[in-house]
Amino acid sequence: MNLKQWKSKVSIWIAALFIFTAGNAFAENKHLIIGISPGPYGDLFKQAIAPSLAQKGYTVEIKEFSDYVQPNLALANKSIDANLFQHPMYLKKFAADKGLKLSALISVPTAGVGIYSKKYKSIADIKEGSSLTLANDPTNLARALRYLQAVGLIKIKPEIDATKASEKDIVENPKKLKIHPLEAAQIPRTLDSVDIAVASGNYAISSGIYPTAIDREIIPEDYINVIAVRTDDLDAQYVKDIKEVVESEAFANIMSDPAKIFKDFQKPAWLKAKTK
């Protein structure tokens, strides 16, 4: 074999290797791993998003995390391809605090925070000195306090940004509530030992207490949950395909299906406008 023939064969081998590698990379990208926290969002993805992605050639694996920290770390280190568990306020703060390049892709119907109690049947029944648990992570703590203020149980310093408030910013607590911030996942389990719990929708649903809320918030748009992806992947085809599926009529129909729990979720503004 002369030098010219040898170079020609090497070129063919390199080209074949490139095609094989590129083909494998594409195939790998057609298997999507989606991170969720316990609750309804894994079902939402499986029932309302995964079937349409399957029609586009994707397989979807749901990976459940037990807290609000690991899903974003896993997304950043590429252990998963997207996650669905958080609102944009939490995403922005977490990404900034950890120096992660993560972005919201699109908002989805969301189960709101609620007030739960085995002792009381309404907010008006709540007695002085009652004990109360709520989430301890900064954004969800501020959200719960803003909600408690909206229903008249406390008042926060007027000069404080309500999205950054902590229990130290409470200036009026007429019922002298004993407030105990805890990890969000633990809140439903505290109902046997405290009088009131302010629990997020996903953990309330996963623990079976969701229908028993004595009050449920009207969710501000910046607390509607989002699908998050790596910022560098915003132009990736799988990300575009996820967004297209969520914006589809098939997705909207499942979210409005009277036989599914999603019908009771608050729709984001874009979906309300689409389904009017």
UniProtKB/TrEMBL annotation:
Subcellular location as annotated: Membrane
GO cellular component: membrane
Signal peptide stretch: 1-27
Record Pfam families: Lipoprotein_9
Gene3D superfamilies for this protein: Periplasmic binding protein-like II
Alphabetized InterPro entries for the sequence: Lipoprotein_NlpA
Keywords carried by this UniProt record: Lipoprotein, Membrane, Palmitate, Signal
Membrane topology note: Lipid-anchor
Family: Belongs to the NlpA lipoprotein family.
PANTHER family per UniProt: D-METHIONINE-BINDING LIPOPROTEIN METQ, METHIONINE-BINDING LIPOPROTEIN METQ
UniProt protein name: D-methionine-binding lipoprotein MetQ
Organism: Sulfurospirillum diekertiae
Phylogenetic lineage: Bacteria, Pseudomonadati, Campylobacterota, Epsilonproteobacteria, Campylobacterales
